Amino acid sequence: QSVLTQPPSASGTPGQRVTISCSGSGSNIGSNTVNWYQQLPGTAPKLLIYKSNLRPSGVPDRFSGSKSGTSASLAISGLQSEDEADYYCATWDDSLNACVFGGGTSLTVL
Amino acid sequence: QVQLQESGPGLVKPSQTLSLTCTVSGGSISDIDYYWTWIRQPAGKGLEWIARIYTSGRANYNPSLKSRVTISVDRSKNHLSLKLSSVTAADTATYYCARGYTYYDVETSDWFDPWGQGTLVSVSS
Known about the structure:
heterodimer, A: mainly beta, six-stranded mixed beta sheet, B: 0% helix, globular
């Protein structure tokens, strides 16, 4: 059971906008910023969003992040086939004094 | 461009100690702006954070693994190490190393970038 809760799956058609949620508590998302990682099939995870809403260099602006209270969201607009991947949210948990991940969301582009 | 490469035995027997190395290239493991961390992922499952270590030697551990984990840095070899003792089949996973960064503001921000490609470790007799 993951500390952060994500839907196990999401889907959309090319061009659509999809959002993935990440729910936590006051000791993690409520106190710290959230990061999102993208894991393409058979590859290592890659940083997609950091500090809740910032994109590293090279990440398309189709990807955006937000945070409110103890929840965070990743939005993907203009969905493309190459966006088919697993997405993980993560943050630091002050009570556990540890990094915590969501269980991951498998995104399918129909 | 910092790159990380994990290495270690692909197969470990139950009850033994798993030992992995992460070699850092294109940058110094002694850079005080960063820390170094291990994450693992069982096949078909999610990511689990294991531990992190700063160049000062200060370390944090996943509470569920803390009693079995040793993380260390070898500055002379520019590499990071992980030892996990008393392994069982539940420790079978792909193990990743990554560079971490902490930004302190009203909220604390921690993120991992880049990641190594991962190394698969199986625990079996």
